[in-house]
Amino acid sequence: MTPLAADEDAAVRDAIGALEIAEGILPTAAFMALREPALRRVVADRLAACGRVLLPVEEGWVSGYDDTVADALVCHGYGTVSAVDRAVLALVLLRTVAIPRARGEVAGEAWVVEHGARPTSIDELARNRHLTKAQITTSVRRLRTLGLLRPGHRADLVPGPALLRLTRQRTTWLWEDLLLLAAPDSPYAHVLRARRAGPSGAGAAVAVPAEEKAR
Predict the structure, then answer these.
(1) Is 211 a domain residue?
(2) What per-residue confidence (pLDDT) applies to 206?
(3) Same domain membership, residue 51 and residue 88
(4) Assigned domain for 37 exists
(5) pLDDT in tens, 186-195
(6) Dihedrals φ, ψ of 124, to 5°?
(7) 92 and 179 co-located in one domain
(8) Do 59 and 101 sit in the same domain of this protein?
(9) Distance from CA of residue 199 to its chain's centroid?
(10) Residue 68 pLDDT
């Protein structure tokens, strides 16, 4: 590979730094190294050397964990969230995106929907009798800190920017996990369980390592 000029190398480093700390999508037009295909390939290669991937999202880019690296982190218990936090996150995803999508109110496969997501609330989640309101309230604070729920102090709850960092494969697995949760006896759920029980099954797909707020 031809060595980069000093300004090109600086542009690549600037883009990588921004990708790794951004809480949302980086617009393509904002960074030279994301606009130019050759430099974007360098960005992707340098991220790959660190176990990261460059992911296209709408009109921009985010970075996330490579699936193999994410599997290894989860296997060793790094960056995972508690069972209560996973349950609360699943309830939020079901109410804000999965159910509205099934009703045709939200299009696409993204979890973070800027317009059209149906917000939920702690009071609504507390209708689930398996979790107390105190457990949900505490969990919501943790999930907001991790970026798995939209940060801030607003009463309405929607998925957060950390979910933008999921690869296509992990996004698919997460949709499948919620289907298993919402319709465990459906024909598709039986097919999914049989497929996952095979030698190349997906396993516990929801368990993805949480992105750090800053690196």
Answers:
(1) no
(2) 46
(3) no
(4) yes
(5) 888 888 888 8
(6) -70, -40
(7) yes
(8) no
(9) 26
(10) 94
- The range of the structural domain enclosing residue 12 comes to 6-65
The verdict on residue 76 lying in a domain is no
HEC string of 79-117 equals CCCCHHHHHHHHHHHHHHHHHHHHCCCCCCCCCCCCCCC
Query: Facing residues of 56 across strands?
Result: 61
140-150 per-position pLDDT tens digit: 999 999 999 99
pTM of the model: 0.82
- What is the distance between the terminal CA atoms of the chain, rounded to a whole angstrom? 28
| Spatial contact of 132 and 167, defined as CB atoms under 8 Å apart | no
Number of residues written out for the chain: 215
CA-to-CA dists, residue 184 to 100, 128, 165, 181, angstroms: 19, 17, 27, 6
Chain centroid offset of residue 96 CA = 15
Q: What is the pLDDT of residues 102-157, one digit of tens each?
A: 777 767 667 776 665 689 999 999 998 889 999 999 999 999 999 999 988 788 99
Statement to judge: residues 94 and 173 lie in one domain: yes
204 domain residue, yes or no: no
Residue 23 CB neighbours (<10 A):
15
Residues 6 or more apart whose CB falls under 8 angstroms from that of 164 comprise 24, 25, 55, 57, 62, 64, 110, 111, 112
Q: What is the DSSP string of 8-27?
A: HHHHHHHHHHHHHH-SSPEE
Sequence-ordered list of residues with C-beta below 8 angstroms from that of 166, at least 6 positions apart, any chain: 64, 111, 174, 208
Q: Are residues 183 and 121 in the same domain?
A: yes
Please, are residues 111 and 174 in contact by the beta-carbon 8 Å criterion?
yes
